[in-house]
Design brief:
Helices cover 66% and strands 4% of the residues. Strand 1 and strand 2 form a beta hairpin. The longest helix is centred in the last third of the chain and has 35 residues. Bound molecules: protoporphyrin IX containing FE (2 copies).
């Protein structure tokens, strides 16, 4: 069940790809729905984000219990440091994104629901149709800002992360990517 230098556990591999692919989809949908004002996508984005939050927390607990996996090959020290920083940014932003999203929507008065299952009711403003009465406007505003900034940070870290994975695979020809695909390396 533990990660070793030659093989990552199936838990590490499964959690990496479930969370990783969900994050790529949520960032893409988040930017698209915001830029093009596609309000029909908002409840789907929020529902998937809240469901995946459970998997994200399972992953964080797994990391805390297991520590970070040992590097697959002998990287240079700057590469090692950069990979560590990027992994920390990625894992922290996966926690910050759903929490800031829930605070922005919940405290902004828009309510929280998972595919129709209401967790917190919306508080519409009777005087201004379509507008909400915030439960706590300043915190909702700060959470909104955090959601935007952490989203950009996650995306920047993700680009470095994928560049690193491809460099290891195609230039260094080591087992870093293969190991994250569940394969045993020597
Ligand atoms: C096409 C997309 C991706 C590829 C090819 C990829 C590849 C990899 C590889 C090869 C490793 C192992 C690095 C090592 O052994 O030092 C790794 C680890 C990691 N990746 Fe990704 N990754 C992708 C997407 C993501 C995304 C979207 C996130 C989070 C938002 C993420 C978060 C992490 C973290 C936190 C680790 C450290 C090990 C762990 O906690 O499981 N990855 N990734
Ligand atoms: C779990 C990971 C999540 C990721 C990676 C993510 C990512 C994003 C991104 C990148 C944006 C676009 C931000 C911008 O450019 O302004 C966005 C917008 C948004 N997200 Fe998320 N999100 C996540 C979870 C959530 C959750 C759980 C909620 C609420 C329950 C939520 C609610 C929203 C809302 C309401 C917007 C639109 C904000 C606006 O209209 O300005 N998100 N999300």
């Amino acid at each position: 069940m533990s990660d070793t230098k030659s093989k990552l556990s199936c838990v590490t591999v499964a959690l990496h790809w479930i969370v990783g692919i969900s994050m790529i989809m949520l960032v893409t949908v988040g930017v698209y729905m915001t830029d093009y004002e596609v309000y029909a996508l908002y409840p789907i984005h929020k529902s998937v984000g809240m469901i995946i939050f459970v998997v994200i927390m399972a992953r964080v607990i797994w990391r805390v219990k297991q520590g970070w996996p040992e590097a697959a090959s002998n990287y240079k020290s700057w590469e090692h440091a950069l990979a560590k920083i990027v992994h920390w940014i990625l894992i922290i932003t996966t926690v910050v994104m759903p929490i800031s999203g829930m605070l922005m929507s919940g405290l902004g008065g828009y309510g929280l629901a998972i595919f129709g299952l209401e967790l917190l009711a919306a508080t519409p403003n009777p005087d201004e149709p379509g507008r909400m009465i915030p439960i706590n406007g300043p915190i909702a505003g700060a959470a909104h800002e955090t959601h935007e900034i952490a989203g950009k940070l996650m995306f920047a870290a993700f680009l470095l992360h994928v560049a690193g994975a491809l460099k290891h695979h195609f230039m260094d020809k080591d087992g870093t990517l293969k190991r994250m695909l569940g394969q045993r390396i020597d």
